Amino acid sequence: GAAALVVWIVAAWAAACGLRGRRHRTAASAPAAATRAGSSGSQSGAGWLWGAKFAQSCRSDKYLPGLDMARMVASIHIVLGHLYAKGALPPCGETHTSPHCVHGDNYLFSWGFTWVPWFFMLSGFVRTHARLNAAEITQLEPPLTFAHRCLGKLYPMYALGLVVATAVTVSRGRPLPYWYESAAQYALVQSWVPWLAETPLQTQCWFISCLFPYWLLFGCCYRNLVLRITTAGRAWCALALLCLLPWISFVAPAAWEESPPDWYADHHTGALRDDPGAGLSIGVATLKFNPLCYFHVFVSGMVLARLRDLAKAGRGGGASLSAALVCLRCGATLGYITLLLVFGLRDLRPESAKISARLTI
Q1: Which of 16, 120, 173, 300 supports an S-S bond with 242, CB 3.0-4.6 Å?
Q2: Which InterPro entries match (predicted)?
Q3: 42 with 11: CB under 8 angstroms?
Q4: Single pTM value for the model
């Protein structure tokens, strides 16, 4: 079953990449098509201007094909991480009953959860990159229009997944969530409330309820932060400040001498349904799911896109610009090598990894 699921994901991503590449080629040929149409006189003056603006807004600079493979690897690792946590990947599932098992030959799969915040960063990066490469970089859609347009690509499949999960639960004779838990999931507000974040249906889709408020705030952050960053040095400073925020996940547990590194281990998925007043579970669920805990990750993606844009334009000068150029050329390779080492070597596992690895950038 796990192998079939992985094959299905690879096939889906291959199809998506093919469609994306087709759109990319269409967008790349749009300027030439608009020019030919204008020179032949087959369009009116207003139509030619509209076609030229459309072609210019669909420049191929918006498409980043290098991200396709990263998306595929991240998606597969997330799925394997969920299977690992459920004990469905032997030998961990055969020899250990704890969902936090970090032993066995499948240790690499235990890190699948770390890619979810990466997708938050990627969302901010891609949308800012597209905006910075548009014909008019200062023109923005109304927040609700922009958020609805972004959500329209995800919500139909998300809602269908909830319906299918409900049908499967009923067919197996298992109890359904309370009506308000299901309503919160359909309304995409479950991540805001710790008691609703770990409902039995589609728990793994909690991240969508985080993305919607991020998209609502995209225009505000873009206008008041991204466009105000005019040099590579300022971009580096903004990234440094954003990276400092999640270090509280290291400092706070260390303030208590008796606090073990895995202080969150007593919490298990669904614990708040059994004991709604459990303080530890409330704190863990908040850190794991609340959109406020990941907003800095989304914004860091926006700032990173701005840094890339400034580096391409050569704005900044000095060491900050040189560092940006080095990161653009070698950063991804070094980053993936570092991730592979951390994911594969237990000695490099950071303290409080289940929380700190989620919140850090």
Answers
A1: 300
A2: Acyl_transf_3_dom
A3: no
A4: 0.76
